[in-house]
Amino acid sequence: MAGQGDSGSSGSGDVGSAGEGGAGNASEGGAGNAGEGGAGNAGEGGAGDAGSAGEGATEPLDLTFADAFVIKVQARSDRSLLVLLDKPLDLHVDSGSPQRKLLLLDAAGRQLELLAASSSSRFLLDFAVHDSGDVSVLYSTATEYSLERFDANGDSLGMSVLSDSEIDQDPPVWNGPPSAGVEPFTFDTGRIAAFGEQLLVATRTGRHSVTARRFAFFDDGAGAAFHVEWRTLVVPPFKIGAVGLAGGSYDTFSAVQAQVMLHLAVDQAGIIYVAVQHPHLGGTNLVKAYAQVFAETLNGDADALDLYVTRIASDGKRIGTTVVGTAEDDQLFGLRGGQDSALVIGRKEYWNDQGTGFDALVARLDGKTGALQLRELNVERSDLAFDAVALAGGSWLVTGASDWQQNPHGASVSEESQAFLRRLDANGESSGIALANGPRHNEGRTLVPFGRGRWLLGGMSDGPGTHSGDGDPAKVRASGFLREFRLDARGQL
């Protein structure tokens, strides 16, 4: 099964997890990838037409997208592309309703179809490509999640609203008014990944708990629909304090909302990974909940400012949770499945007065042994990684944002930022290529293997900083890019 997840990819990386249970097999198709925590859709207002790389499919792709940026791309076996576009949200208007759209492009980058999009009340979160070329899509509203399945041509095959009667029965049992099915702090708290023709779904509930479910899609006589095969509690219900920016118009990197977002991946051996980070306030609440409900002792930072990855076998059996972190404050922005492991992706902070003490953080979690390999990447001033792929020989390909600074006493991020693409070797040394960054804020979000040494890099250009739109809402905008690059036979840039 080709490893996949929010930073999914078919390809080389290895994945891991500690623990007991075995993994089942699943065969999964094309390459995939998703940047940060969220996938989404560029609302009704449109994200601009895809560009073209020229008449021939062998021309290097170099696409731009107006008024939206690229956060996830998957390539099918015919080299057609599914591209998920997102729009920056003005905090004065809305901070939790993703406005995204999903485009189907041919191998030369020409738009074939607008497959799905957010509306004013239903929000596109994520998508996954199956072996057959079918595409599944996850939506949310303020109260519920739903799934839709499309065939390879983009025609809808069926839709299901997801219900979960066990939310309030999960320990500790809640006897008050029924809890909502969707996290209240932001509606962008669900992710999906293909498991052959089946679908893995991870969502956060109104109790702040996280569940994982596997669905099959078939017609039981009442019409084609998604049918749940198993459900597993990943994160037990616990208290999370609401946190927001004291000022500003944009949540750069979605760093404030990261405390309730989640990430999902599956490796080629069939191990499933669901990752969350610590809450901004009361980090020990999460650790205590794991101990009380699962009898798991999670040994991390004393202040619990770490990342937590739960491994699940293909039959839904919970294997265990691994702490991924450093002595500093760590934040989670991606998760990518590989051969027999997962790469956990984000940033860590070495605090300084200048607000430039952030380094990119990437860790490999082995699915069989639970062994952890952690590497840091310092590119320029502050750095953050959104996606990473394991290459042959133990090197990792990493993309993200660098050369920015953050209020050392808050969460405001500068408008200037540069996208980066680096190869990070096992010895900690790195090399990279210069990227054509645009004005203002730039981010590398997603990496996609495209065959015969060809790769795609998608992301943001001309984006906002935290305060860009304070005096002019029109400055809360961004464009997107999807560009081809190559690795040589040795995997060098």
Task: Tell me about this structure.
This protein is an all-beta fold and 493 residues long. It has one domain: Methylamine Dehydrogenase, Chain H (7 Propeller). Helices cover 2% and strands 42% of the residues. It has 1 helix and 29 strands. The chain has one helix at residues 284-294, and strands spanning 4-5, 62-65, 69-75, 81-86, 100-105, 111-117, 123-129, 135-140, 145-150, 156-162, 190-195, 198-204, 210-219, 224-235, 263-266, 272-277, 307-312, 318-324, 329-337, 341-349, 358-366, 372-377, 382-390, 396-404, 418-424, 430-432, 441-451, 454-463, 479-486. The strands form 7 sheets. The chain has a 5-stranded antiparallel beta sheet, with no helix packed on it. A hairpin with a 2-residue loop joins β27 and β28. The longest helix is centred in the middle third of the chain and has 11 residues, at 284-294. Residues 7-57 have low confidence and may be disordered.
